[in-house]
Amino acid sequence: MKTQPSHPASSDCLFCKIVAGDIPANRVYEDEFCIGFPDINPQAPTHLLIIPRQHIASTAKAEAEHSALLGSLMSAAAKIARAEKLSKGYRIVVNTGEDGGQTVNHLHLHLLGGRHMNWPPG
């Protein structure tokens, strides 16, 4: 898989600091495109964040050139879900923008599992 063009990390971005190793995180998954680690405010028995190494502020800022990266995030989520033994199911959430509930301006997936997920969310 081809790596994505690099975009400068944001010096004030919490997730960029985690990618750089400036802020520690319990990395449960890592590959050339992304990192997975537990959410500090879990909303389910399993609640992990999957962040791209490349800084993209949100899905609203994603472009066609990010297609491979976006696909790798979903693939990583599936790998992590298998490793976490979420065979009964799980939810992948991407919050975008203030009204979407995004609190860190760095694209990230929430992988939630370990309990029944209700619908509709929010």
From TrEMBL:
It holds the Pfam family HIT. InterPro entries: Histidine_triad_CS, Histidine_triad_HIT, HIT-like, HIT-like_sf, PLAT/LH2_dom. A motif (Histidine triad motif) lies at residues 106-110. Residues 14-122 form the HIT domain. The active site is at residue 108. Residues 88-122 form the PLAT domain. Coiled coil: none annotated. One of its GO terms (molecular function) is catalytic activity. This is Histidine triad nucleotide-binding protein.
